[in-house]
Specification:
- It is built from 9 helices and 8 strands.
- With 198 residues, it is α+β, with helices and mostly antiparallel strands.
- The chain folds into 2 domains: 5-57; 66-197, no CATH class.
- The protein has a 3-stranded antiparallel sheet, with helices on both faces. A 3-stranded mixed sheet has the order 4-5-6.
- A hairpin with a 2-residue loop joins strand 2 (47-51) and strand 3 (54-57).
- Helix 5 (83-90) packs antiparallel against helix 6 (138-147).
- The longest helix has 16 residues, at 182-197.
- It is elongated.
- The N and C termini lie far apart (73 Å).
- The relative contact order is 0.11.
- The mean pLDDT is 92.
Length: 198
């Protein structure tokens, strides 16, 4: 039975629309695009090759966090956007990083110069589902940047912003920091003291 190309295209578009225009070679293959057809679409500039086994529809207009969906697909859905990048997604603080921070399970071995990889087992409460990717919660992201030795003044401002916006309480932050990282708990306590003294 011949393949209905319009139906194939529609199914690919529906999948890619949920993933910021991105899709993997394996996903395209499962829809019915042979490897030969995939090469054809790249050659015809219908698809852009973003990485090995990762494509994007050529006509897709990028959204605000589509690059984070790309890294989620790159990680085979094992990564959560975290640390400074996680806080940026939540709109908390003014931390800057030239690379995207991802937290992955222990044993994850993929590498790329565009990302900073952190290994940790994340609890369900540490993860927030976004459109096409996952990020660590504001609470976990603050603990992680504190554990990495964030600037105390910046950390204090971010904590105040998070508490003022209702994302967390200082009690929750202290408790989670003690569970996750002793050094992070110390940095958080200093930042909280700075807030109290202001």
């Amino acid at each position: 039975m011949p393949v209905d190309r319009r139906d194939l295209r529609r199914r690919l578009f529906n999948l890619a629309a949920q993933q910021g225009g991105y899709f993997t070679a394996a996903q395209a293959r499962s829809l019915g695009y042979s490897y030969q057809a995939q090469a054809h679409h790249v050659g015809a500039s219908n698809w852009h090759r973003s990485d090995r086994g990762l494509f994007r529809l050529a006509e897709w207009v990028p959204g605000l966090h589509d690059d984070l969906i790309r890294w989620t697909l790159w990680s085979k859905d094992r990564a959560a956007v975290s640390h400074e990048t996680g806080l940026a997604v939540h709109g908390i603080g003014e931390f800057e990083s030239p690379r995207i921070h991802l937290t992955v399970p222990p044993g994850f071995s993929m590498r790329d110069d565009a990302v900073v990889i952190h290994h940790a087992e994340l609890a369900d409460g540490d993860i927030v589902e976004q459109a096409g990717f996952r990020t660590t919660s504001v609470l976990r992201s603050l603990v992680d940047v504190a554990a990495a030795g964030a600037d105390e003044e910046q950390l204090a401002r971010a904590i105040k912003e998070a508490t003022d916006d209702g994302h967390l309480t200082l009690r929750q932050l202290r408790a989670r920091a003690e569970q996750v990282d002793v050094k992070g708990a110390l940095y958080i306590e200093r930042a909280i003291q700075r807030i109290a003294a202001a």
